[in-house]
Amino acid sequence: MDEGPRHRLDELIERSDPDFRTVMSCVFGIEDHETRTYFALLDRPGSTVEELSAALERDRSTVNRSLSTLTERGLVRRDRRLLDGGGYVYQYTAIALPEAKAMLHDALETWTESVHGVINGFDGDRP
To answer: What residues form the membrane-spanning segments (predicted)?
Structure first.
């Protein structure tokens, strides 16, 4: 059973000056290659797995797994396009950067509130 993203906020706290990609990876619980895939899609909206594989110089299965994770996290949208000769292809588009930033802020605020709750709820009893 999938429990959702595994935030790696402990990694983020350990860094004194993280860059944006590190913040994204830690907060969304994604790997560096998935973060690279997100940024590649920002520059190439509507890309297929094959197009992204070529752009990222990665194999299709790796890119496909990255896209699945990014879609689950709400960072990428998948649309089905019908082909003229029959059949279909999936096209992927990254959510806009301001929307991703808002999601990061929301996730960090939720985490901060939960930590404040733990602090405020501590009554001095020791285990």
So the answer is: none
pLDDT tens digits for range 73-127: 999 999 999 999 999 999 999 999 999 999 999 988 988 898 899 899 888 877 6
Domains of the chain: 9-120 (1.10.10.10)
DSSP 32-94: HHHHHHHHHHHHSTTB-HHHHHHHHT--HHHHHHHHHHHHHTTSEEEEEEE-TTS-EEEEEEE
Residues 6+ apart with CB under 8 A from 69: 30, 31, 34
Cβ atoms < 10 Å from Cβ of 34? 23
Does the pLDDT of residue 13 top 80, yes or no? Answer: no
